[in-house]
């Protein structure tokens, strides 16, 4: 489990490793930071969602969310629309949030991408495995993630340019969306790239998604050459594509 402590002289949150009972005792942020800077209900979000899933309820949940206000603002600066703050059974020394995200990137780079088969909106089954012969870009997103929405036009534009040479797999975390929402979202934003549905959160678990949006860049040998956490600018994604094709 990962908990963030803001009672620090550093310019960014510190990650501390404690049980949830102790986590509730962390200092709360100033009252002027408690409202407007973040939200928890995903259908009411402008920026970021903290995922607390089964860990908290009632007053304890409210207190922890308020404690996370600075984390939300910091993550927003990184272009992250959702951040998974939990990592079970971890007793590591405290690290910063930026260091934690960097560790996630280093952990995956150079490894083989997990195989999967997922459905599309029309019911077609699409597979990615060792027989895949083209470079692949896998993006994990949701309809309620504001930072995901920012990069969607970039992915659409480059899909139109490079779709014949690179497999674009835009994986919607359907366990947190539904098909009607996704279909409406694609039409409203004029998005035509292939969308796969992670309806049972299998991909989220297999790829250990730490935040939305997250993008994996995979070469023709199924090796992960880059993991990008947060919204991508066109120049960033184009550079990754050029690296795949050269």
What is the average of the pLDDT values? 69
Give the strand tally: 13
The major β-sheet equals: 5 strands, mixed
| Count of helical regions | 8
**Spatial strand order of the main sheet:** 10-9-8-12-13
Helix content range: 25-40%
Write the CATH architecture name of the largest domain. 3-Layer(aba) Sandwich
**How many discrete domains?**
2
Along the chain, the helix and strand elements come as: EEHEHHEEHEEEHEHEHEEEH
CATH domain topology of the largest domain: Glutaredoxin
Spans with pLDDT under 50 lasting ≥5 residues?
1-75, 84-92
Radius of gyration: 18 Å
Gap between N and C termini: 40 Å
Q: Can you give a write-up of this model?
A:
With 246 residues, this protein is an alpha/beta fold. The chain has two domains: 3-106, no CATH class; 110-245, Glutaredoxin (3-Layer(aba) Sandwich). It has eight helices and 13 strands. The chain has helices at 20-23, 58-67, 69-77, 97-108, 146-162, 179-188, 202-206, 234-245, and strands at residues 3-5, 14-16, 49-50, 82-83, 95-96, 116-119, 125-128, 136-141, 167-172, 195-197, 211-212, 214-218, 224-229. The strands form four sheets. The chain has a five-stranded mixed sheet. A three-stranded antiparallel sheet has the order 1-2-5. A hairpin with a 5-residue loop joins β6 and β7. α5 (146-162) packs across α8. The chain is globular and about 35 Å long. The N and C termini lie far apart (40 Å). Mean pLDDT is 69; it is low at 1-75 and 84-92.
Task: Tell me the layout of helices and strands.
Layout (H helix, E strand, L loop, with lengths): L2 E3 L8 E3 L3 H4 L25 E2 L7 H10 L1 H9 L4 E2 L11 E2 H12 L7 E4 L5 E4 L7 E6 L4 H17 L4 E6 L6 H10 L6 E3 L4 H5 L4 E2 L1 E5 L5 E6 L4 H12 L1
Parallel strand pairs: 3-4, 8-9, 9-10
Antiparallel strand pairs: 1-2, 2-5, 4-11, 6-7, 8-12, 12-13
């Amino acid at each position: 489990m990962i908990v963030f402590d803001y009672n620090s002289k550093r310019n960014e949150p510190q990650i501390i490793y404690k049980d949830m009972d102790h986590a509730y005792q962390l200092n709360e942020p100033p009252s002027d930071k408690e409202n407007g800077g973040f939200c928890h209900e995903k259908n009411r979000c402008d920026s970021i969602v903290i995922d607390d899933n089964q860990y908290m309820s009632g007053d304890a949940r409210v207190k922890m969310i308020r404690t996370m206000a600075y984390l939300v603002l910091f993550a927003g600066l990184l272009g992250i629309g959702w951040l998974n703050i939990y990592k079970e059974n971890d007793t590591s020394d405290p690290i910063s949030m930026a260091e934690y995200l960097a560790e996630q990137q280093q952990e995956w780079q150079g490894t083989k991408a997990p195989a999967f088969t997922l459905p599309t909106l029309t019911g077609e089954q699409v597979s990615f495995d060792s027989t895949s012969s083209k470079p692949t870009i896998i993006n994990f997103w949701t309809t309620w993630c504001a930072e995901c929405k920012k990069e969607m036009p970039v992915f659409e534009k480059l899909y139109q340019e490079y779709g014949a040479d690179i497999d674009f797999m835009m994986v919607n975390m359907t366990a947190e969306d539904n098909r009607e929402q996704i279909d409406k979202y694609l039409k409203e934003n004029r998005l035509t790239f292939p969308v796969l549905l992670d309806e049972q959160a299998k991909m989220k678990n297999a790829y250990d998604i730490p935040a939305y949006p997250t993008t994996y860049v995979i070469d023709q040998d199924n090796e992960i050459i880059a993991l990008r956490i947060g919204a991508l600018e066109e120049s960033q994604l184009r550079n990754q594509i050029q690296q795949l094709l050269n």
